[in-house]
């Protein structure tokens, strides 16, 4: 279900970010784009609102793996009261960090696939966010000889790549 009033949502995000940048004394600029055009190969990420940051304080947003950037994004999502299954409709990026991370995850997915094929054993990724797990799931969706599954709870949730007919604890997958 699309965001009902994207322009109103973008304006709310703008007000929110204006306060953060101004009161935080941050040297950042940002651009908010409604219905941004994205490359065809990024079919798993089609945000309705894209916020892109740049500026001298960009490193503050990207420190610790983009923790502050993700936190600001989550606050904006909560402010708009988007249900959990619609969080991907808002996307925040800084200095192209997100698209580089997506490419990194796609490469890691390919490496994991080859490893599982060679060894016949499952490959478990380190814990990652639901968005990142989704990217890996979708990067491997066309590999008919493999099966992916998310396991674990909360911040320890990770993705596991299995050979298609892998047997675990006496049952086939």
The CATH topology name of the largest domain reads GMP Synthetase, Chain A, domain 3
How many E strands?
8
Strand content: 15-25%
Looking at how many chains there are and whether they match, the oligomeric state comes to: single chain
**Helicity range of the residues?**
40-55%
Principal-axis shape: elongated
Strand order of the largest sheet: 1-2-3
Q: Could you state the CATH homologous superfamily of the largest domain?
A: K homology (KH) domain
How would you spell out the order of helices and strands?
HEEHEHEHEEEE
In terms of structural class, how would the helical and strand content be classed?
alpha+beta
Largest sheet: 3 strands, mixed
Q: Residue ranges: pLDDT <50 for 5 or more in a row? A: none
User: Which architecture of the largest domain would the CATH scheme give at its second level?
Assistant: 2-Layer Sandwich
Q: Taking all residues together, what is the mean pLDDT?
A: 88
Distance between the termini: 32 Å
Number of spatially distinct domains: 2
Calculate Rg over CA atoms: 18 Å
Number of helices in the DSSP assignment: 4
CATH first level of the largest domain = Alpha Beta
Characterise this structure.
This protein has 173 residues and is of the alpha+beta class. The strands form three sheets. A three-stranded mixed beta sheet has the order 1-2-3. 42% of the residues lie in helices and 20% in strands. The mean pLDDT is 88. Helix 3 (97-119) packs across helix 4 (130-139). It has helices at 6-23, 58-79, 97-119, 130-139, and strands spanning 29-34, 49-54, 90-94, 123-124, 146-151, 158-163, 167-168, 171-172. The protein has two domains: 6-95, GMP Synthetase, Chain A, domain 3 (2-Layer Sandwich); 102-172, 2-Layer Sandwich (Ribosomal Protein S8, Chain: A, domain 1).
